[in-house]
Design brief:
5-stranded mixed β-sheet; binds 5-phosphoarabinonic acid; 5-stranded parallel β-sheet
Amino acid sequence: MNNNMVKVNVGGCSSFVNDADYQKYVQKALAAYDVLKAESGPGNDFLGWKTLPVDIPASLVSDCETIRDEWSAKGIDLVVVIGIGGSYLGARCAIEALSHGFVRKEGVPQIAYAGNNLSEDYLAELMDLAAMRNTACVVISKSGTTTEPAVAFRIVKEYIEKTYGKEEAARRIVAITDAKKGALKTLATQEGYKTFVVPDNVGGRYSVLTPVGILPIILAGFDMRAMLRGAAAEREALLLRSEDNPAVQYAAMRNLLYTEKGKKVEVLVTFNPKLQYLGEWWKQLYGESEGKEGKGIFPASVVCTTDLHSMGQYIQEGDRVLFETTVTVEKARREVLVGTDGQNLDQLNYLAGRHVEHCNKMAQLGTKLAHIDGGVPQMEITVGQLDEASLGALFYFFEFACGVSAYLLGINPFNQPGVEAYKKNMFALLRKPGYEAQTEEILRRLQ
Ligand code: PA5
């Protein structure tokens, strides 16, 4: 009996692969599953994420709730969350999925993100917003040395100190970083900031269920305990070793399509714009975990039906290197029905009385068939509804499946050596101390 909150359906791939091949890949996935479970694979010193849903102490959640309450008492209505990659995408995914798309909840601060780019316009506009608001900041960097968040933090910190005074600034800034090392740790200690630790054995893109995700999600007004419960339930279900294990099925099918069928690109599809950032989080998780040694499925994402009017043409008829994985939420949270119009000038009366979500579901089914006809295999990942528990389950499911999938591919999912390449060139161009020797050579190559 499969108790997973996250269901996987590989049926939309059946006209592209034969069952014997699929069964072969299920066995390969089970072997990879065993490696992940036994913690005997490469990168096994970064497996702390596996037990986070049951390891996170209740006191950590309460500490974060205390900060939420203290900041609320001060009337703080803007929290700038500074971080890049795994240090913000999980929180942003959860917050955007759970928040009202247009209206801010009374008494809950707006969350704005910074440090995920180096755009001057972006930061200038963010500071315009800060000037209109009562502002606090959470700065997140596991290494404590990443340039993008460090630059943003210097600017936001200066603003908060100037506006509220240095002493009060220390009460409006929280740092989430390594327990001992890194510039951010040194700075936070010196300035007396409240600090949370990113565990040593959890990599950035696996850190959403550490303070990296927990604090911003709580500050945004959501129930982190429910999210951890959802993740714990999914973990429990995934511990069952079986050919029906959804993580095994997902890893098996995507690797079969990639290795044997030339499907090099996986498009994560959602028909709910609230899940746009699930796509962003998932792309980082899979791209940074698997894209190594000249291997790896390229992760892309689309939001439908929006993107059916842009990327839809390519997906239907472009280079046949794609397969799609659609994340479906079974039940909408709200109800909007199409009304009846006496004149029917828009000719929509055939939809009168229908839920908009019914139209969305029919669009989804129609798209699935059209894309199968166009040569694009289809997988589906389904959760019941969009809430904290389902998101916790989805986070855990995708992390676990990523470990299984990368081990199946023969890749260490827990490092990211390639991310360093651009940094060396950027540091040399910025004339960072220690990089002077490379500057002339890089300038010559750029001519
Ligand atoms: O997954 C990862 O490890 C990375 O994407 C990091 O999260 C990202 O580079 C940010 O690193 P840091 O938290 O050290 O600033």
